[in-house]
What we know:
Blueprint: E1 22-24, E2 28-29, H1 32-42, H2 47-50, H3 52-57, H4 67-80, E3 87-97, E4 106-118, E5 124-134, E6 140-151, H5 153-158
Antiparallel strand pairs: 1-4, 2-4, 3-6, 4-5, 5-6
Amino acid sequence: MDSATAPEDGRLTYDDIADDLAWETPGITVTESHIFAFAGLSGDFYEIHVDDDYARSLGYPGRVAHGLLGLALADGLKNRSAVRLAAVVSLGWRWRFAGPILVGDRVQARIKVVAKRATRRPDRGIVTLDLTLFNQKGEVVQAGENDLMVHRAVAMSAGSAP
């Protein structure tokens, strides 16, 4: 597929995205398997993530998921939500860890468009999303912003080359 042409599958182009668009993603329950798989993938076997006794000695009820696992889940939830954007690439994240994500927590994200700007290329725009990841109790566990480069409608209609 030409990188300048977004597929016609219902994803929103830059021009379709309302300035105040907001939505919630589905949720996902964090399991031991998620934590151990992420530890293996990242090489981060810090005790708070893999040792219940150690995590309890620090005042947690058990193992705590990696902060970057929470960010990865937030990105995955965004990409699997009912609102889908015709993204080209992610340009970066500004992210903070506000609370622990524990085994058994069900997390989901609230997402809101907070900024849009055109680029020099007529077939792309930049969208900034505010994401809040919260658990089943409504507690914010992570939050931040994600900048996305998004296809413009002109790219879909003209089929312009990069």
